[in-house]
Amino acid sequence: MTSIAAAARPMFSFRNLNIVTTVIASLLFLILLGAPDIAWWLFGIEGGESADFVARRTAMLFAGIAALCWFTRNTPAGAAQSGIAKGLALAMVGLVMLGLTEWLRGFAGIGILLAVVTELALAVGYGRMACYPSGR
After folding, report:
1. Total count of domains within the chain
2. Is residue 136 part of a domain?
3. Is the pTM for the entire model greater than 0.85?
4. What is the pLDDT of residues 31-54, one digit of tens each?
5. Among 19, 25, 40, 134, which has the highest number of CB atoms less than 10 A from its own CB?
6. What angle do CA 40, 16, 134 make, to 5 degrees?
């Protein structure tokens, strides 16, 4: 195997990447549903009834992401795995762009960078998984 091929190979298997994503999405579900003030504090933004309303709805999306990742963690390489990886990579890239934009415009505090770094790592992981679906 050439060094270029070895460098392009994903560090995590699809299964392990999905398990990590399940844990992160489950934690976000619990925080946003039960204690959204933690997110407001971390991101340095103002909470309130409207923000809490959106947080509860967002929590359910994270529950769905957690379930999707958990129940598809053993999906073999192929079209389904590639589609899941591409969809999650797209979502993570979008979150990275939004997080950086909100931080640069001064709306979100420095804590948003924790989310951005995590989302970027997931975007790279799923992006590489989409390019090299067998996880060789």
Report:
1. 1
2. no
3. yes
4. 999 999 999 999 999 999 999 999
5. 25
6. 130
